[in-house]
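Sharing a chain and its predicted structure for anyone who wants a worked example. Both blocks are below, sequence first, tokens second.
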Amino acid sequence: MKDSAPTLYKTDQLASRVTEYCESVSLKIPQPILDYHARIYEEREDSMYMISTFQSQAQVFLARLIGAKRVLEIGVYIGYSAMIWAHAVGPQGKVTGLEYEQKFATDAEKAWKQHGYENIEVHVGDAAETLPKLAESEPYDIIFVDADKTGYPGYLKQILAQSAPGAAHRLLRPGGIIATDNTLRRGLVADNTKDNPWRRDDYGPDQGPVSYDNKAVAALREYNDAAAASERLETFLVPLWDGLNLSRLID
């Protein structure tokens, strides 16, 4: 039987070269968006909040694969991934963002205007409070979750509750996708022992509630378990990047 966990690349250098090759033969992201990603990466210390350009290609492919025209994004940061979704759905599509930080939302709106994207909107505030207030005439095709990790289990419950079969204003359509980022968190969700070289010194049961990693990993594990257990979802957890949980809403 073929091994489910093969060792693909023996060195980081080889893995980097393979990734670069895969990017080069995959669908193209518009250069202005790539330039924005590169500038943010160079200028901001919190640029790790952005998805990678390689993951961006995968998300455009996913959106077009299912014919998505409407995307809801929970966690906007400064607008890069929203532009990726806007590119994917085209000018006739729509992207709605929920962002907690006003400064991030302002920077995002500035970037969207500079790049000519008029089909993106953002709501500022706690997503747990904003989600119930969304009253869309049409459901979304994709919901992308990339926000505070401790909020993930709650977001899933809200999305499912607001997407009940037969609901007049459901949030996600039947067959729609919930794409949730960072669901492996440097592998700690699967292996939080000292065997994991990405485990930080402040992580572990002896650290108690002071470590954000402890809380985040527990919440991500709860999210993955809930998605897998739900009879309304079909889930595939992709072990690429920092873990991308893809769940298809059956009903």
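Comments welcome. Strands lie at 70-74, 94-99, 120-124, 140-145, 172-181, 233-238, 244-249.
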